[in-house]
Amino acid sequence: MNLKGNLNLTMKQMNKKAEIFNSPLIEKLMAERDLKQTAKVKKRMMLAAKIGDGIKTKGWKKKDLAEALNKQPSEITKWLSGTHNFTSDTLWDIEDVLDIELISLTDKKQEQVTNYYLTVSQKPEKQSSDSIIINNLDKLIPTFSLNYEA
Amino acid sequence: MSKILLNKEQNINFQLKSIEILEVSINFPEQVIRENKTYHYNMNIQHRINLEQKLVIVDTTIETLYQDKKTRLGHIKVACVYFVESLLDYISDINDKLVNLPEAFIISLNSESISTTRGIMFSQFRGTFLHNAVLPIIDQKGFAVNK
After folding, report:
1. For labeling, which of A103, A149, B67, B109 is most exposed (least CB within 10 Å)?
2. Does residue A60 sit within a domain?
3. Which residues 6+ apart lie within 8 Å of A104 measured at CB?
4. Which range of residues forms the domain containing residue A72?
5. Closest residue by Cα to residue B45 from A117, A94, A108, A18
6. B65 and B38 in contact (C-beta within 8 Å)?
7. CATH code for the domain of A63
8. Residue A48 counted as domain residue
């Protein structure tokens, strides 16, 4: 009964609708945050996620990457936490073993695209009954004759 | 290599490098189209520029419509790849990612591409109910541009 009772309680808690929680402390902290630092953390997280994806795509585990780079598995865990400040050499090594691109040195220019639109209509060739059949080839001769007078 | 003479001092050398049929489709409508007198065509020409390789890729899409201008009977998409020797000379002074090609040259590219597509379209639709749907001669001035 106790177990059932606890379960019901848990379900009730889960069904509870989300409520907007206002905290002056959180609002103060959010206002004080450094936007540059936030952007930097976001980029670090994205980099870590990209490395994580690279490991998965390769079918590896963290241990495999550690072995390939001659590092301790704990170091890889730190890299994937998104808090590590990588050196460019480390990133290039990771690129090399995971076969992914983490730093782009070439300026990828966007392709210029121009579109032209037009709608046209066409009447198909006349039906065979309307066709003009020339049996007498002499009628065509003046067209090519030097003596033809317009 | 073809040469387009724009004026006495300026001409552009270009070469048709390749032609690719990208898409072809034929859709026979439910109603009989024996009495179809007029075909309508929606055309879309897309220019893509690759500065690194000095290429202008012209994608020509032609949609053939029934006389009600709604029923789609077929469509074809062909890419013509042109190598333009002096493409880099036409990079915009304001934006180095933008290429401003002379209008006469654009008309020439469009014309070449439409003619090529017309031929391919005929060969693809030959012997089908779209056998007579031959793309008419196009007046280039009628094109609406959307950059």
Report:
1. A149
2. yes
3. none
4. 34-104
5. A117
6. no
7. 1.10.260.40
8. yes
Q: Are A116 and B44 inside 8 Å of each other by CB?
A: yes
Chain B residues with CB under 8 Å of A121 CB are 38-41, 136
Report how far apart, in Å, the C-alpha atoms of A47 and of each of A76, A84, A91 are: 13, 10, 10
Helix (H), strand (E) counts: chain A: 7, 1
Neighbours of A96 (CB within 10 A): 11
pLDDT digits (tens, 9 = 90+) for B55-90: 999 999 999 998 888 889 999 999 999 999 999 888
3-state SS class at B31: coil
Q: With a cut of 0.95, is the ipTM above it?
A: no
Cα–Cα distance list, B9 to B3, B5, B99, B125 (Å): 13, 8, 20, 43
Identify whether A141 is part of a domain.
no
Lowest mean pLDDT among A74-83, B41-50, B120-129, B133-142: B133-142
Question: For residue A95, what are its two tokens?
Answer: 């690129």
Whether the CB of A107 is below 8 Å from some CB of chain B: the reply is no
- Sole residue written with tokens 């090529």: B116
Query: Which residue among A110, A112, A120 sits closest to B43, beta carbon to beta carbon?
Result: A120
Establish if A131 touches chain B: CB-CB under 8 angstroms: no
Q: How far apart are CA A84 and CA A41, in angstroms?
A: 10
Which of the residues in chain A have pLDDT under 70?
1-18, 106-110, 123-150
